[in-house]
Amino acid sequence: MKPTELAPAFFIAVGVILIFCKGVSWLLGKAGQPAVVSEMLAGVLLGPSLLGLLLPGVEHWLFPAPLLPVLYVVGQIGLVLFMFQAGYAFTGHRITGVAGTASTVSVAGVGAPLLLGVALVYVTDGLAPVQKEGTPLPVTAAFVGVALAITAFPMLARIITERGLSGTRYGSLSLASGALDDMAAWIMLAVVLAFASGEPGPAVLTAGGALLFGLVLWFGGRRTGDALMGSERLGERGRLLGTVVLLFLIAWYTDVIGLYAVFGAFAVGVIMPHTERTDRIVETLTPVAATVFLPLFFTYSGLRTEFGLLGDPAVLLFAVACVVVAIAGKFGACWAAARVRGEPNGVALRIGALMNARGLMQLIALNVGLEAGIVGPALFTVLVLVALVTTIMTTPLLSWIERRSPLSASLPEPADRDIHHSPAVP
User: What pTM did the predictor assign?
Assistant: First the structure.
């Protein structure tokens, strides 16, 4: 297609995506589901799993093959803005007094699903056709384990904030544990991607580039953020422009070295000082990212999700096993760790329910794996199903626990009562 043909195709596709996502969000919102759940599901429904199955001609007309790279690039803009916001929110929750329990919960919430995921891939080797040809079994196993270990920290923060749980014991513990979980999972994903190349060159580039990136952030990152936000000469628009330029340059660098743009964008959010000026920039970028760009990423992911592949009994059984392992490894392990640390059963159950959500963060990891060539369509579909099930179940499960195990008003609260809240994230 020529550029003059791609432009109108892009406009009609984006219009349909935004309207459809809004409609699904409105419907699921009545069931108490956050917008990110609706958009994840809407993206899948617009792909071959439903629209392509019922009206393949309409799907091909709406999303012709030459348009997909455009959706990918524009969706990456949404991801970069989102991960910047997530990084900013990551450092915005100053939580003290729960470090020991949060660390224990985090280690259990990462270690258990990681080990169970790796074990599941090895046990089912040769039984379910989910390993991509050319990808070593250890790489597939490690990727599945990391994907199952992810917690959707941004969505976790939003649920806790919207439900007024920030001052509760389990809200504080979940925030702290979720933040540690995501940081650990992203580091592990970077390691898996580095080893997946199978050649020393890319691995050395990733390791060396990541080391350099870490040193620059450590010694100059905070100063750069302070200088950008503290400058009186730039003005509000200048600071906004400077933030976006810095964000895109870092995203470019981390993409080039093999860490991918999402890592760089998250890091930029982490180094930004928490000031009113930064808050205004985040609040300016957030609506654009959440309303316009992120739905394009969900749709792009949905176009590569083929639930028809679950028609293979072996793949379906592997998918069911993945869902069970994901829930047992995250919900069960976090609940058990909290109980070991002496938390009441009601608090431990709520922590497990909150930590179990994977959401957008797992979708990002899956797309990174797909682009890196270590994930095939079957495994991609299976893990998308895991992300959908664990995310959709979070809100109703939490409500059910709250009805069945009401907490006493005299339950001890965390030591830190003045938790700083960043703008809510999708």
Answer: 0.79
